[in-house]
Write a structure and sequence with these properties.
Blueprint lengths: L1 H17 L2 E7 L5 H10 L5 E6 L5 E7 L5 H10 L11 H4 L18
Antiparallel strand pairs: 1-3, 2-3
């Protein structure tokens, strides 16, 4: 019986290793519904199955295929449209082009540059 359980357990771990879909959350700075639309639209690329940014918590939930896109690339996509994440800072030249309501750096005292 122990042998069968060991085999089933090993098989289950092997199957999990084959899965390339990851779900994760991270912080993305922004303020409003315009930010939400911009951030989520930036993630409308091959490999990202779900991208949902919460305005209140500033948390981004993503579900993505690691064979098609990396987490670092997702952070880069978001930074490229003017929004800082835990891992990437948007270029100042991109950030200053955001609408005034979306300028979070001067308004969010918890933001660390």
């Amino acid at each position: 019986m122990k042998f069968i359980i060991a085999i089933i357990s090993s098989l289950f771990m092997w199957i999990q290793g084959l899965q390339t879909t990851i779900k994760t959350e991270f912080k993305v700075y922004g303020n409003c519904t315009e930010c939400k639309e911009r951030i989520e639209l930036a993630c409308d690329v091959k490999g990202i199955q779900v991208a949902n940014w919460n305005i209140d918590t500033k948390r981004m939930f993503v579900k993505f295929d690691t064979d098609k896109i990396s987490l670092d690339s997702i952070h880069a996509l978001i930074a490229a449209v003017g929004h800082d994440t835990d891992l990437k800072k948007a270029a100042d030249s991109t950030y200053i082009k955001l609408p005034n309501c979306c300028l979070y750096r001067d308004h969010d005292n918890t933001h660390h540059d």
